[in-house]
User: What shape does this take?
Amino acid sequence: MLVARDLVKAFGGVRAVDGVSFAIGRGTITGLIGPNGAGKTTLFNCLAGFHRPTSGTLAFQGTRIDGEGPDRIFRRGLARTFQIPRPFPEMSVLENVMLAPAGQTGERFWSNWFAAGTVAREERALRDRAMHWLAFVGLDALAGRPARVLSGGQRKLVELARVLVAEPTMILLDEPGAGVNPRMLDTIVDRIATLNAQGITFLVIEHNMDLVMRLCRPILVMAQGRLLMQGDPDAVRGDPRVVEAYLGGAAA
Assistant: This one.
């Protein structure tokens, strides 16, 4: 579904992503791990169009996307969440979830006068989809509340619901477990697994190794901008290069 070949992203003389190649299979939950500074977030930013790769290629569902902007990549069905969600605090939870879809008739100025019926129908359908996904993540009871009242874990679930309204085929999740209490983390893991069973592919950055080992197959390991290895959880757990990448500096 997503293929990177010899991907490089350089900032001056520093290669934050240095010749990375991988393929994400359709229907998988792939983990992306590595120590701080490994280049994981920079790689995500390249995949989602926030950074233009210095060199190399990216293809999503057989179409080259390297060099495309985030809005175009999003419309292709490749969406992402962020490690620290930032909803509009004074808008309602429901309004925040309804923000995602692009190309609505009401976005065109004159349509609100000359196609008011179409605008109203789309708005009702969008509201229904947003409420469906809020119920899916267990937050429909908070639909009318301002987003500022949400906890960190609830904000992550709202961001997931917002992405789902746009009906993506693949989602890039940036540390869904960061700063989340164990009960909320269980909810997030369960929702990801359910969505995956329904056909959505995931690539997940995560530092919570328990979450990664429970949820992800395969796992990609980055260190110093390079792809160190990839494999199933047992192979990753037992690979001395992974142990060195995480613990070598501390052991020294």
Q: What stands out?
A: Residues 199 and 250 are 40 Å apart (CA to CA). The chain has one domain: 2-251. The chain has a mean pLDDT of 89.
